Amino acid sequence: MVSRVEVTGAAEAVIEKLKALHGPLMFHQSGGCCDGSAPMCYPRKEFRVGAQDVYLGTIAGTPFFIGAAQFEYWSHTQLIIDVVPGRGSGFSLEAPEGVRFLTRSRVFSDDESEGLTLPATGEEWAESAI
Predict the structure, then answer these.
(1) Which residues are paired to 80 by β-bridges?
(2) Which residue of 9, 13, 33, 63 has the lowest C-beta tally within 10 Å?
């Protein structure tokens, strides 16, 4: 089964470092311009997800969500979370480390698309995580 979200080795290493510094984390990819459309990493209990968020899966043991409107645009693609040098201008935890997360993507094949199931909403995920 193909996953909706993956992570590069470089990004996974940064996530592990951030977990050591901040504890459990979560990611959210929202819509918007500039860094508002970049994947943002937060301490897990400092960002509340709900019915307008879609749970795509986990990367490096960390839950990853996307806004429902963004999911409509990206639902035919696999998101690949990477890290590059530079500083974003958001509240994402990696900013002080001199790097920023970014989303790359690839279109699912027809076979992969047929095997996909509808993901849970953030609200459903939150209820199951209690």
Answers:
(1) 6, 104
(2) 33
Reduced to 3 states (helix: H, G, I; strand: E, B; else coil), residue 107 is strand
Phi and psi torsions of 116, nearest 5°: -75, 145
For the chain, the residue count is: 130
Backbone angles phi, psi at 99, to 5 degrees: -135, 170
pLDDT tens for 53-66 read: 999 999 999 999 99
Q: 71 — alpha (psi -120 to 50), left (phi > 0) or beta?
A: alpha
Tell me if 38 sits within 8 A of 92, measured CB to CB. Answer: yes
Dihedrals φ, ψ of 46, to 5°?
A: -105, 5
pLDDT tens-digit readout, 13-32:
999 999 999 999 999 997 76
